[in-house]
Design brief:
alpha+beta, globular
């Protein structure tokens, strides 16, 4: 019995220390340029203009591509309906930003250094190496409040920010 109690105390302490070491990103920080999970597509169109392309993906989602400062903003919405009249019924479940002028509330943006990222949010929950078109990158993945926040890092600089709703997009 004493062994079980000691083991429970050790496991609790370990979990507590892991959570301290991976200080997450507060829920109010999981937005870029005012776009956040759950945003209504109508609000985004009012701020950034109409999509240059919209594609229905399966029965449950629509991918919208907006052009902002000659850079794409890719937004995935949960909706079964298409068209500009349907924007009020489409809500963001995932989005990708590469424009350096769009910031998170903390000021982190594409173009920030990995050191600025870690100084602001702490160490990521997970790091994942990748390679695309002979370019090696590292994803810094943070999990906080039901959202995944992924920063794609090239040579120490954030090149892409993606925010995903955990309920819809499972990556672990």
């Amino acid at each position: 019995m004493l062994k079980k109690i000691c083991l429970a105390i050790i496991l609790t302490a370990f979990i507590f220390l892991v959570n301290i070491c991976h200080a997450g990103i507060p829920k109010n920080e999981s937005s870029v340029g005012g776009i956040r999970i759950g945003s209504n597509m109508r609000q985004i169109v009012n701020s950034y203009g109409n999509p240059v392309q919209s594609v229905k993906k399966g029965y449950e989602s629509i991918i919208h591509v907006l052009n902002y400062n000659d850079n794409p903003i890719v937004i995935k919405c949960d909706a079964g309906v298409m068209g500009t009249n349907a924007y009020d019924k489409q809500y963001v479940t995932d989005f990708i930003v590469i424009d350096e002028s769009l910031e998170m509330p903390s000021g982190i943006h594409c173009g920030s250094t990995v050191q600025e990222l870690v100084n602001t949010y702490g160490e990521p929950t997970r790091k994942q190496q990748g390679k695309e078109n002979n370019v090696i990158f590292t994803n810094y993945i943070y999990f906080e409040g039901g959202d995944y926040i992924i920063f794609e890092i090239h040579d120490g600089i954030i090149k892409l920010i993606e925010i995903r709703d955990m309920e819809v997009n499972h990556i672990f």
